[in-house]
Design brief:
Layout lengths: L1 H8 L3 H33 L4 H50 L2 H7 L1 H43 L7 H42 L1 H6 L3 H53 L5 H42 L25 E8 L9 E8 L4 E6 L5 H6 L9 E6 L2 E2 L5 H6 L1 E4 L8 E2 H5 L8 H10 L3 H6 L7 E2 L8 H15 L3 E5 L7 H14 L4 E5 L11 E6 L2 E6 L1 H7 L1 H8 L4 H4 L1
Parallel strand pairs: 3-10, 3-11, 6-9, 9-10
Antiparallel strand pairs: 1-2, 1-4, 4-5, 7-8, 11-12
Helix pairs in contact: 1-3, 2-3, 2-5, 2-9, 3-5, 5-6, 5-9, 6-8, 6-9, 8-9, 13-15, 17-18
């Protein structure tokens, strides 16, 4: 957490300096008030000097007014710095997550990343807000109070030699015990968020399999574990404050008893005793304030470690120091994609998912990828936009290795339709313009026509401005897929990748969409991952994957003669007459 504070509070050192100065003024004036009060008792009340009482009382009012002004300004500037700190940390966290590869995001998990960017940052932000007020104020009151108490009566100050160590030891033991529980609490929050997210995302599956009661028990178990850890922490702090208050009250009794003896022996004025008690209360309250800050620090420290862990991650996939641009090829179509001896294995995996993959995909042609489940189809096309990097070999676009390109430039050449179509909250138009912010309505309708989505969009009450809920949950699966395809078409990229993105379409719509794509996209390179052979029979090039290797490469007719794996896939779906 220390590095986070140093890094992200540095831009606000001016505000923090002013806050510390105001805290210093508050502490000095707070220490001055008991002395004024003692003067009133010793020199005003004892002598019956009303004028002196009014004069010193006026000073006390002015000092109090100064305290109020300093507190208001200091609290405002402290809150401003704390809020800005939280904003900057969240922004840095978000930028870091955006730079991570898919494997690194999977390692942390979406629920944990969400918790770290919200709850964890909030914990640190709260400590900053409280710390800017108490970090200097509490130790100054402690040290200043000790000095002023000694000035009032040195023998009576010996009582503090017992009181302060007792409070500090009690506080230290409680915080030491609480720290691991705070770390555990953050993990339990992650788990609760994960369970909740799974249940919200999979609500249809849960209901279809009548597992509502099971999921309720799973949530209750995660909720109970978090509650148990929270209760342990609260029990600990429930002990802390009564313990500190008990020490404080017994200290007051001891000071009153010993002070009364000294007053009775005329060794101490009564005003000094009231001032001494006030300073002891300030000392003990400073420890109480420090304990309040300390009660937040263990949890904030655990949260800071989790946030720093993500910010410190070095992305496995980074942009090169000197990126290479795809050269302009005058008079030639762009988008030639070549796989050369490509091998890929997931981090920590013993065996490669893809081995010795070699092929070339050219503009104006459709390259279809088929194979059994788990053969590596989706992994293969994920390598093109560098969602993952190849373990060995290379992938080039127009002769440029994708690893030598700036990723933003690389992505600008690729229109990607993922296996699971995802739409953002907004409207139909805002989702389509995700591919091109400057696209006109005419261009959007053109893309919808090609994607076979224009008919149902026109039937919507608001047309292009029809609201879309997060994830596209207010449209059907087939409509989501067609809108996702239209979004990619709006981009007008040189390379289009369709990862099994026609699976939710009926055969008629599938056929019409493929025909429209053939007419519309004449100069782009097309990659199509498909399960249905009827969707890719007419592709110029079909790649058959089997356990991560290319078992066959060619047209439908060529593969029917040369590739047994392809024949098995075809005959499992089509009759001999349909396959011919």
């Amino acid at each position: 957490m220390t590095r986070l504070l140093i890094t992200y509070l540095k831009p606000y050192w001016k505000e923090i300096t002013v806050v510390f100065f105001l805290v210093l003024v508050r502490a000095v004036t707070n220490l001055y008030l008991p002395t004024l009060n003692a003067d009133i008792i010793n020199d005003g009340v004892a002598k019956g000097d009303t004028g002196y009482i009014w004069e010193v009382g006026g000073y006390m009012l002015l000092v109090t007014l100064l305290q109020v002004i300093c507190t208001i300004i200091g609290t405002y500037l402290g809150a401003k710095a704390a809020m800005a700190f939280g904003r900057d940390v969240r922004s840095a966290f978000f930028r870091k997550v955006e730079s991570l590869s898919q494997g690194e995001i999977n390692r942390f998990g979406a629920p944990s990343l969400i918790t770290r960017s919200t709850n964890d940052v909030q914990q640190i932000q709260m400590v900053v807000a409280i710390g800017l007020s108490l970090m200097l104020f509490a130790p100054m009151m402690l040290i200043g109070g000790l000095f002023m108490a000694l000035r009032q009566d040195a023998p009576l100050s010996l009582t503090l030699a017992v009181i302060l160590p007792l409070m500090i030891i009690s506080l230290g033991l409680i915080i030491w015990r609480a720290l691991p529980w705070f770390r555990s609490m953050q993990v339990k929050i992650d788990r609760l968020n994960q369970v909740m997210r799974e249940q919200l995302s999979g609500v249809r599956v849960i209901r279809a399999f009548a597992r509502t009661d099971y999921e309720a028990r799973r949530f209750e178990r995660a909720n109970a574990e978090l509650t148990e850890v929270g209760l342990r922490v609260m029990r600990l702090f429930a002990i802390m404050f009564p313990t500190l208050f008990g020490i404080m009250n017994f200290s007051t009794i001891a000071i009153m008893w010993y002070g009364a003896i000294r007053i009775d022996s005329l060794e101490m004025p009564i005003g000094n005793l009231t001032a001494f008690i006030a300073y002891v209360m300030q000392i003990l309250m400073s420890i109480m304030m420090a304990s309040m800050l300390a009660s937040f620090i263990p949890r904030a420290s655990a949260a800071g470690t989790r946030v720093q862990e993500v910010i410190d991650v070095e992305p496995g996939i980074v942009d090169p120091a000197n990126p290479v641009m795809i050269p302009s090829l005058a008079g030639e179509a762009r988008g030639v994609v070549e796989f050369k001896d490509v091998e890929f294995r997931y981090p920590g995996a013993e065996e490669a998912v893809l081995t010795n993959v070699n092929f070339t995909a050219r503009p104006g042609q459709t390259t279809a990828i088929v194979g059994s489940t788990g053969s590596g189809k989706s992994t293969l096309i994920s390598l093109i936009p560098r969602l993952y990097d190849v373990t060995s070999g290379s992938i080039t676009i127009d002769g440029v290795d994708v690893r030598d390109m700036d990723r933003s430039d690389l992505w600008s050449h690729i229109g990607f339709v993922p296996q699971k179509a995802f739409l953002f909250s907004g409207t139909v138009a805002s989702n389509l313009r995700y591919g091109d912010e400057k696209a006109t309505d005419e261009e959007l309708w053109r893309a919808l026509e090609v994607a076979q989505a224009a008919e149902f969009v026109r039937a919507m009450p608001a047309g292009l401005e029809e609201p879309i809920m997060q994830g596209g949950t207010n449209v059907s699966g087939g409509q989501r897929q067609r809108l996702a395809i239209a979004r990619a078409l709006v981009k007008r990229a040189e390379i289009n990748v369709f990862d099994d993105s026609l699976s939710a379409l009926d055969f008629k719509t599938d056929s019409m969409l493929r025909a429209a794509l053939k007419r519309e996209i004449t100069n782009a390179t097309m990659f199509v991952v498909a399960q249905r052979i009827s969707s890719i029979m007419h592709a110029e090039q079909i790649i058959v994957l089997d356990e991560g290797t290319i078992a066959g490469l060619g047209t439908h007719d060529e593969l029917m003669e040369t590739c047994k794996t392809y024949q098995e896939i075809v005959y499992s779906q089509l009759s001999a007459e349909e396959a011919a």
